[in-house]
Design brief:
Blueprint: E1 6-10, H1 17-28, E2 31-34, H2 35-49, H3 56-65, E3 68-70, E4 77-79, E5 82-83, H4 91-100, H5 104-117, E6 123-127, H6 130-134, E7 140-145, H7 148-161, H8 169-185, E8 198-201, H9 207-222
Length: 228
């Protein structure tokens, strides 16, 4: 009987997780779950309601009450039925999401939601604590990284593609360094590589190369067990 497979991809901002995870989900026929988008959605809701980003109680309520959905076969993110795919990518939401994600109660609420999403189906789930906290028993774990200057350049390119050409590279680098520090030093579920995760540096690899490397890992783990 086919078993559920969890492919966990962790790593810092700008490492290429979203692009790689979406492609892998399409190639494997798995469900793609962007956990970072969930924290962004809660952050967006908090900003809209004027909730202070240090008000852990109200942030926890938002996380518990939010209905976050991912449209199958697309990158669409729905928050309480509203398409917020573009809204959650705004720089101020990114900054807020980093702070919201450091709140332990918010993380607990969303981790529970992430586990529910993966019940009974194979998933590619990307974030910062998937292989360490959300699914420590994931069949395949990858820690995707890239040099800081490469990650900065990718983020600047992403912003430019959305028409935000006024953002300077040095400011993006500062914001990413701040976020890296918060992610790696928060007391609950910090960004670390799981001991059994495969480290992949995407600095000099094209996306197709990263995808093929991970597919090789998946095949090695699943070919002998009849897992689909």
């Amino acid at each position: 009987m086919a078993k559920r497979v969890v492919l966990a991809i962790d790593g810092p901002a700008g490492a290429g997780k979203s692009t790689i995870a979406r492609t892998l989900a399409e190639r494997l026929g798995y469900i793609y779950i962007d956990t970072g988008a969930m924290y962004r959605a809660v952050a967006l809701w908090a900003l809209r309601l004027g909730v202070a980003l240090d008000d852990s109680h109200r942030l926890e309520r938002l996380a518990l009450e939010s209905n976050i959905e991912f449209a199958p076969g697309a990158s669409t993110v729905l928050l309480n039925g509203e398409d917020v795919t573009e809204a959650i990518r705004a720089p101020e939401v990114s900054e807020a999401a980093s702070k919201v994600s450091a709140v332990p109660a918010v993380r607990r609420a969303l981790v529970a939601a992430q586990r529910r999403m993966a019940q009974g189906t194979s998933v590619v789930m990307e974030g910062r604590d998937i292989g360490t906290v959300v699914f420590p028993d994931a069949l395949v774990k990858v820690f995707l990284d890239a040099a800081p200057e490469v990650r900065t350049a990718r983020r600047v390119q992403d912003l430019a593609a959305r028409g935000e050409t006024q953002t300077q590279a040095d400011e993006v680098a500062r914001q990413m360094a701040d976020r890296d520090h918060r992610d790696r030093t928060r007391p609950e579920a910090p960004l670390v590589q799981a001991p059994d995760a495969t480290y992949i540096d995407s600095s000099a690899l094209p996306p197709d190369g990263v995808v093929e490397a991970i597919l090789k890992l998946v095949r090695a783990k699943t070919s002998n067990g009849g897992i689909h």
